[in-house]
Design goal:
Blueprint lengths: L1 E12 L12 E11 L4 H4 L8 H14 L5 H14 L5 E9 L7 E9 L4 H14 L8
Antiparallel strand pairs: 1-2, 2-3, 3-4
Length: 141
């Protein structure tokens, strides 16, 4: 698997559950890793055959301005869904941090990992391969 990543993306957004967090933007830091099954760009040398981290960065900036969630968990899930749904990642790890949220803590946050759902065709193909491996070939008697 090939990994495209962005580390230390810093932005400002309104997020949280406490009254002090709901009226002014606060800093958050995002790290993300998006996995592709052997990126075609390795062979073609074309940005269109991989995930363009510049475009992902722009999408994160837009998300910071537009989202309506309160919890970092929901925010991280939204990022994971974007990477899988809009950018075609097969696997993602997303870490979202509020730096210096408390005076005695360097950072608080969440980290999640998600896999893209298998398509029905891929799932059926895996089932057929399992049958073939067991010596049973569908449709042959």
């Amino acid at each position: 698997m090939d990994l495209i990543f962005i580390e230390g993306f810093t932005g400002q957004t309104v997020i949280g559950i406490h009254d002090s967090e709901l009226h002014r933007p606060q800093p958050i830091v995002i790290d993300l890793h998006a996995g592709l099954v052997r990126s075609r760009a390795c062979d073609t040398d074309r940005i269109g055959d991989t995930i363009d981290y510049g475009v992902v960065r722009e999408r994160l900036q837009r998300l910071l301005a537009e989202h309506k969630v309160q919890l970092l968990e929901a925010f991280a899930e939204t990022i994971a869904e974007i990477l899988i749904g809009e950018f075609g990642a097969r696997w993602v790890r997303v870490k979202v941090v509020k730096p210096r949220k408390f005076d005695d803590v360097q950072a608080v946050g969440v980290q999640i990992e998600r896999f893209a759902p298998q398509s029905d065709a891929a799932h059926r193909g895996a089932a057929v391969l399992q049958l073939i491996g067991s010596g049973m070939v569908p449709g042959n008697r």
